[in-house]
Design a protein that fits this description.
This protein is of the alpha+beta class. It is built from 3 helices and 11 strands; from the N terminus they run βββββββαβββαβα. The longest helix has 13 residues, at about 85-100. The radius of gyration is 18 Å and the shape is globular.
């Protein structure tokens, strides 16, 4: 494949549409439309997978997502700001979305892509131990979040409910947690 042109179709601060023109393996001209963060940093965002030590529970959030028109179970997440490390962004996002604080970073993934057919956005999964009392007082006006702390049995029950929408990363982590009692 030979990408020979990229055209920015929209001009927004955090997400844009890009049309890539390329030649396929047979030499035919093709185009692909995708969403792009157009970030020079990788990863663009962090997804925090928090385990509350005192409660012995995995922390998930139930958040309203406009594209879905409803609530989705996921993990605290957000963009990595300029000059900010993934760990700093993860600490900030966990606190802003749940009121909880990171006490230990367990593991950090490299930049990974969750929907590369639609976007070039990359994220880093940040597995952490956390503490504190969950609250949503630091949520932005555009965030409608409910913090949930799940045992392995509760995670298994959630996975069996047809009416719950899941972020793909959350479903995979919850499935592992339900089966093993461990998040990594």
């Amino acid at each position: 494949m030979d990408i020979y042109e990229k055209e920015k179709i929209t001009d927004f601060p955090h997400l844009n549409l890009i049309r890539a023109r390329y030649k396929d393996t047979a030499g035919a001209d093709k185009s692909w439309l995708y969403a792009s963060r157009q970030s020079t940093a990788r990863p663009d965002a962090v997804v925090v997978v928090p385990f509350h030590q005192q409660e012995n529970r995995l922390v998930v959030i139930k958040e309203f997502r406009v594209p879905l028109g409803g609530f989705q179970y996921g993990f605290p997440a957000g963009l990595v700001d300029p000059g900010e490390s993934v760990v700093q962004a993860g600490r900030r996002e966990l606190y802003e979305e749940t009121g909880l604080t990171v006490v230990n970073v367990i593991k950090q993934s490299p930049a990974i892509f969750s929907s590369s057919g639609l976007t070039d956005e990359s994220i880093s999964l940040l597995y952490v131990d956390c503490e504190g009392s969950a609250n949503t007082e630091y949520n932005e006006a555009s965030e409608l979040i409910e913090v949930k702390m799940l045992s392995p049995d509760q995670a298994a029950d959630c996975l069996c409910q047809d009416n719950i929408l899941f972020d793909v990363k959350t479903w995979i982590v919850l499935d592992r947690f339900a089966a093993t009692g461990k998040m990594v």
